[in-house]
Design brief:
Blueprint: H1 7-21, H2 25-59, H3 80-83
Helix pairs in contact: 1-2
Amino acid sequence: MRHKLKKKTRKRLKRLARTMGRVGGAIAVEMVTEMIATFAERSSELTVRIERHRAERAAAPRPRSENGARERDHGLPRTADDHA
């Protein structure tokens, strides 16, 4: 099986896993590869959820008040009717 990680990264992860659980190098690499795989799965799921949420928000019409922050000229001081 071909490694998905660079040699330097593998070495670092081996050292990390050894210090974590005092396991052998090969087991350490397996552990870490598994962790990375699960993380990649979760991150892709999250990306899909975020994109769906963004699409829903873009599709939904935004409520605009009579004198909302978008329309108001920010250079002018607020008047009493702005607070109403």
